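User: quick one, sequence for these tokens?
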């Protein structure tokens, strides 16, 4: 793996350090994220909910608020249609919970992936519209490209509000009120990269603000901060950039999730092995909570997750949380089988190609896990990867994950003549194509990637934030680093390097031998480290080596100790 040490002007580091009375390391981290000057730095290090911009700055949000407030005043039946991932489910729950507090109880439906597809499809719309005589439909985390469905609703005299963050692929639906920052690239930045859970929070913020101005009594009884936990869940799980308003929502949402979880989230935290009363880490969301929520949609039962978040009885929530856990275990087993098959196919057919398209049918090729497998493959192979599962009707449906610097939406746009449905984000897409187009599409996709990358795929690399001395390896260092949290997209967790060091003792295998423990002496005490899934690559203890790691707190038996989480190692001098 190539190590790339991030560079920044030392004079700028010293100047910012002195102006804010912070360490050079913290100043360096701020500058590496493009944060210069005392005011931007202080807003980053000490974000406040008051820093959130006026919700009505968002194009379309005022119109959405006016239409929804009309539904509240007239007690109109409202239908919510979400997506089956964490972002879609949390945004749907945010809107439903707050509208219930304002006096109306909207119906909602979450698409069943296998039968109804993604988002605002005619199939899920038909199921939802049978529930009541609706005057308003609110689409959450979908709808931007649903021109046909918008026309269907317009013909029925039903108004449509779309709250979404997916990119437009062509002509926009005519008639709906649309709240989507990506439709307004020339507008301001604070809310630019909000996911739909963040947009739903802004929508509720705007709705309450308007209703309070109109002296609607119930609006004064609703506290929007109670939705912060859900907004943070959606934001973190959807891997949007954790800067500007996303950072604020994630930071305060994590605190609320740890200290003031709803009954449903309390049950989910317990089932995930997380302690109540302490702020969860980003990894707790991405590796524990989000997979359990997503597993419901992946196994075609998404409303188990939404029911848990809406339920008020703890015993019922615990049963639902256990069901979600069972789904997640089933999902992991399916995913492992599919990953094995997909990697074999990739090695056989695409080892010398700049991109991978693998496909199959049968029990192992479950469409609910193709996105996870595509992500794992993309990460391990360093290439954009598409994983397609063949449905009963013969069509292929799947997901793709990309690499840094390549826009998968752009790639698919160059192959769209072979696709019946496609969309997504620059690094994550979904697509559908007919069986007879598979070979032509595969050729076009690989060629498009080759063209856009110039035939050069960047080798797997590790960005080193800073190199320290062994004597710096102390708790005070981590206290500095966590001021930059929460970490995520565009605010990566710092990777620290130690060079030319010897381990304090021989590394010790852990568990089944897949992992190992090690330690480094800081001059007064050994600091422990863990290397996950690196058991086949244990470093020597009798030679000088370079270590790249992240610093963590390891909590055990009520004590919190410093721990290195190894990312890579190499023999010293082997640059």
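Assistant:
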């Amino acid at each position: 793996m190539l190590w790339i040490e991030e560079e920044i002007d030392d004079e700028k580091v010293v100047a910012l350090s002195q102006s804010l009375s912070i360490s050079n390391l913290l100043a360096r981290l701020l500058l590496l994220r493009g944060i210069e000057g005392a005011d931007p730095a202080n807003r980053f290090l000490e974000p406040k909910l008051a820093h959130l911009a006026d919700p009505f700055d968002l194009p379309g949000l005022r119109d959405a608020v006016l239409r929804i407030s009309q539904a509240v005043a007239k007690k109109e039946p409202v239908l919510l249609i979400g997506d089956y991932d964490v972002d879609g489910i949390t945004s749907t729950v945010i809107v439903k919970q707050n509208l219930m507090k304002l006096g109306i109880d909207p119906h909602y439906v979450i698409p069943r992936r296998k039968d109804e597809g993604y988002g605002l499809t005619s199939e899920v719309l038909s199921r939802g519209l049978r529930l009541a005589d609706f005057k308003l439909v609110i689409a959450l985390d979908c709808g931007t490209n649903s021109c046909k469905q918008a026309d269907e609703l317009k013909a029925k005299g039903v108004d449509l509000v779309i709250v979404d963050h997916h990119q437009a692929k062509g002509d926009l639906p005519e008639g709906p009120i649309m709240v989507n920052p990506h439709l307004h690239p020339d507008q301001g930045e604070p809310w630019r990269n909000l996911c739909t859970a963040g947009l739903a929070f802004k929508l509720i913020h705007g709705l309450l603000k308007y209703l309070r101005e109109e002296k609607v009594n119930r609006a004064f009884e609703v506290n929007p901060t109670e939705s912060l936990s859900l907004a943070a869940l959606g934001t973190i799980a959807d891997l949007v950039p954790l800067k500007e308003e996303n950072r604020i929502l994630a930071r305060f949402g994590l605190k609320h999730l740890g200290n003031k979880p709803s009954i449903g989230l309390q049950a989910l935290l317990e089932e995930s092995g997380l302690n109540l009363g302490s702020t969860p880490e980003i990894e707790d969301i991405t590796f524990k909570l989000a997979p359990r929520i997503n597993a419901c949609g992946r196994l075609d039962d998404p409303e188990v997750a939404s029911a848990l978040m809406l339920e008020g009885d703890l015993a019922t929530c615990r049963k639902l949380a256990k069901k979600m856990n069972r789904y997640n275990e089933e999902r992991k087993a399916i995913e492992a089988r599919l990953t094995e098959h997909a990697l074999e196919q990739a090695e056989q057919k695409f080892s010398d190609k700049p991109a991978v398209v693998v496909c199959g049918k049968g029990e192992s090729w479950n469409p609910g896990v193709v996105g996870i497998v595509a992500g794992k493959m993309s990460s391990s192979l360093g290439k954009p990867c598409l994983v397609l599962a063949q449905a009963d009707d013969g069509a292929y449906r799947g997901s793709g994950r990309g690499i840094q610097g390549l826009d998968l939406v752009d790639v698919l746009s160059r192959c769209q003549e072979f696709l019946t449905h496609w969309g997504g984000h620059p690094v994550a897409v979904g697509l559908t194509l007919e069986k007879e187009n598979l070979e032509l599409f595969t050729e076009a996709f690989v060629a498009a990637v080759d063209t856009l990358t110039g035939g050069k795929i960047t080798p797997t690399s590790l960005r080193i934030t800073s190199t320290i001395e062994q004597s710096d390896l102390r708790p005070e260092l981590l206290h500095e680093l966590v001021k930059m949290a929460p970490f995520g997209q565009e605010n990566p967790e710092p990777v620290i390097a130690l060079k030319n060091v010897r381990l304090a003792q021989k590394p010790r295998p852990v568990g089944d031998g897949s992992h190992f423990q090690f330690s480094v002496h800081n001059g007064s005490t050994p600091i422990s480290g863990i290397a996950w899934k690196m058991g086949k690559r244990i470093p020597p203890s009798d030679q000088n080596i370079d270590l790249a790691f992240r610093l963590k707190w390891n909590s055990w038996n009520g004590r919190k100790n410093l721990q290195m989480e190894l990312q890579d190692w190499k023999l010293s001098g082997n640059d």
